[in-house]
Amino acid sequence: MKSLRSIREKVESGERLSASDGVALFKSNDVLETGRLANIVRERKNGNRAYYIINYHINYANICVNRCRFCAFSRSAGEDGAYEMDMEEILRRADEAARMGATEIHIVGGLHPALPFEFYTEMLREIRSRHPHIHLQAFTAVEIAHIAGVGGMPVGDALVELREAGLGSLPGGGAEVFAPRVRREICPEKLPGEKWLDVMRTAHRLNIRSNATMLYGHVETPEEKIEHLIKLRELQDETGGFMSFIPLAFHPRNTGISRRFGTTGIEDLKHLAIARLMLDNFDHIKAFWIMLGLKLSQVSLSFGVDDIDGTVVEEKITHMAGAETPRGVSVEELRGLIREAGRTPVRRDTLYNAPLDS
Ligand code: V47
Ligand code: SF4
User: Fold this and answer.
1) How far, in Å, CA of 339 to CA of 347, rounded?
2) Beta bridge partner(s), residue 345
3) What's the confidence (pLDDT) of residue 358?
4) What are phi and psi of 216, to 5 degrees?
5) Does residue 137 contact residue 171 with C-beta atoms inside 8 Å?
6) Cβ-based burial of 56 (10 A; exposed 0-12, middle 13-18, buried ≥19)
């Protein structure tokens, strides 16, 4: 097996890692060396800073036509546990976000079979008219493709209309693992990986920035994960539109994928560190503490991570799949755990303007 020494030399000289380097990192048991290497890149790009944001999640509906096997959040229309928020409920939550001082509302839902195109534009417009200073990071690339289909228009036109209504940027969800073999097994109905990348390419060309994700810890191989990361790296070379990359740890409870336990701490740290090393053209690697836990997220600040997401509040997708993390965290606690890790807490907005007043 390839030694990590040649990878260290590349990292130190700023040379891009190859696919086989990435696979070697996944196959290595030396997580501390992998973390040390990721930390070199992390500090080169972001110094000692660790970013966080005051944000709020609204999962407006869980009715979804896709029913991915890994998803415990979605329901079919009429099924027990299916819900959709009406405008009043959505605005009540947006008001709560504003009261908490949020600068971002993160809006994600299922692919609803019946909501009209105007539901999405109105939701954005209403929130923006009440809270014009809050950035709306809304709809994964998969939802964007669905919403465009509902409106009977090309993705580019739908994005322009959504932006006019208040859309600020796109979250990174729906990417899962791009490999068709994996998608056939875990989310056969979902938008193919190449189409996910096309939606992002279109958004970036319109100057709408986005994040990117990868869901790991189910049926995927190291080779498939590295291929996923390299496709993201190639698109980033082309557009420069991605802000941060967030590895998402699969939570198996209440899902159709039988894995008794979730991912382990070592597995999580490895994915964060390898993402930092492979995605040399991404500015930020984010640990989504809702999935990883606050303690591991704190440790990850020495394994390539420079962003610990935010206050969140009321996230449903992971909690319905068994996450035992709290639903939100206070700014004081976030700042305290960043400081304790020897980093400097920096409050940012969605587009990484920083520092905002804490
Ligand atoms: O696409 C669904 C994932 C994503 C499970 O852009 C699951 O800043 C784990 O994209 N276990 C949606 N993950 C959430 C998302 C996100 C989250 C935080 C920050 C950002 C960002 C984006 O959640 C889905 C899917 O990959 N997901 N079910 C599960 N059982
Ligand atoms: Fe629907 Fe998204 Fe869940 Fe898949 S992951 S079933 S697209 S809500």
Assistant:
1) 13
2) 50
3) 62
4) -125, 160
5) yes
6) buried
Crossing angle between the packed helical segments 19-27 and 265-278, to the nearest 10 degrees: 160
Q: Give me the residues of the chain with pLDDT under 70, please.
A: 1-2, 358
What is the pLDDT, as a whole number, of residue 30?
Answer: 96
Q: What number of residues does the chain have? A: 358
Structural tokens at position 125: 């417009």
Residue with tokens 């809006």: 107
Give the Cα separation of 6 and 18 in Å (integer): 11
CA–CA gap between residue 11 and residue 240 (Å, rounded): 21
What is the per-residue pLDDT for 312? 81
Q: Is the CB of 55 under 6 A from ligand 1?
A: no
Fold of 4-346: TIM Barrel (3.20.20)
How confident is the model at residue 344, as a pLDDT? 98
Ligand 1 lined by 51 (C-beta under 6 Å): no
Determine whether the shortest distance from the Cβ of 251 to ligand 1 is under 6 A: yes
